[in-house]
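Structure first, sequence second, as always.
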């Protein structure tokens, strides 16, 4: 795949003390895969709607009066989502062909599993894809449109040049018990989560900590924000996964930091950094922010 408008992916030229050919190849591959996933047929750039369901019937189609509004090429009224007691079912209008996962919708209506089940059902109307997600205990219809202008016009990701200064070794300060936290997302909903450790690292003679969630392979997931936010990087913060830890230490490489989906679409519900993960330092590494979508 060729990324004509993104030289930051295919041309990494900065010379750093750790930037041997293997490191640069790995970083280049990571960045290329990230952009390929964004550009995918049903990647984040294809999101085209986020509709909160009301109890009862919620019609979907291209007509302006539908609670779930689809792109203009869809039928004016394609069907109905019905919410009863937390369960969403779908039914199609006469003459409308809907696929539920890989099979034609049959019988006339069917219950839909949401993303909290771990295996959401996908509904297809032509190349449009719809699914039920739950946020704050409320069911929402998410819509993907591979023909969206956002996907079509995407100019590519922007990246800082690799810099060894932002590849640091952190001490893993494991909590005796997982630390309960409440994480707010960009639409104002909070959810409980647990942090297994704080990762303490030094940068330019100052020590910082990031609360992190431990993954099965011994690496750590972090959401952080630094003083570049709203300037050269996404205002709400960025995401990062550390390398796998060993001996109470773990490598955090900010050159791999990347933007949340909300940097590309208004139809995502991204978690935000915890207050303690807002760093008073400029992390000029990883993904930048392209302000115009």
């Amino acid at each position: 795949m060729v990324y004509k408008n993104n030289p930051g992916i295919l041309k990494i030229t900065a010379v750093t003390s750790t930037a041997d050919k293997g490191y640069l190849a790995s970083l280049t591959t990571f960045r290329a895969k990230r952009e390929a996933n964004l550009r995918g047929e049903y990647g984040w750039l294809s999101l085209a709607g986020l509709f909160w369901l009301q109890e009862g019937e919620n019609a979907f189609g291209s007509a302006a009066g539908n609670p779930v509004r689809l792109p203009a090429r869809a039928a004016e009224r394609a069907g109905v989502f019905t919410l009863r007691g937390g369960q969403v079912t779908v039914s199609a209008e006469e003459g409308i062909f809907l696929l539920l996962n890989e099979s034609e919708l049959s019988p006339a209506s069917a219950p839909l599993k949401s993303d909290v089940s771990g295996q959401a059902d996908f509904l297809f109307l032509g190349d449009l894809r719809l699914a039920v997600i739950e946020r704050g205990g409320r069911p929402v219809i998410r819509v993907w449109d591979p023909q969206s202008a956002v996907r079509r016009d995407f100019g590519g990701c922007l990246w800082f040049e690799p810099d060894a200064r932002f590849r640091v070794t952190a001490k893993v300060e494991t909590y005796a018990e997982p630390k309960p936290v409440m994480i707010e997302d960009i639409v104002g909903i909070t959810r409980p989560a647990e942090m297994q450790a704080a990762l303490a690292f030094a940068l330019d003679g100052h020590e910082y900590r990031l609360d992190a969630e431990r993954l099965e392979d011994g690496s750590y997931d972090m959401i952080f924000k630094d003083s570049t936010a709203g300037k050269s990087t996404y205002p709400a913060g960025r995401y990062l996964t550390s390398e796998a830890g060993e001996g109470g230490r773990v490598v955090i490489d900010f050159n791999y930091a990347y933007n949340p989906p909300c940097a590309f679409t208004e139809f995502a519900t991204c978690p935000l950094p915890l207050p303690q993960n807002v760093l008073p330092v400029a992390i000029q590494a990883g993904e930048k922010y392209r302000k115009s979508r």
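Margin note: The longest strand covers residues 167-184.
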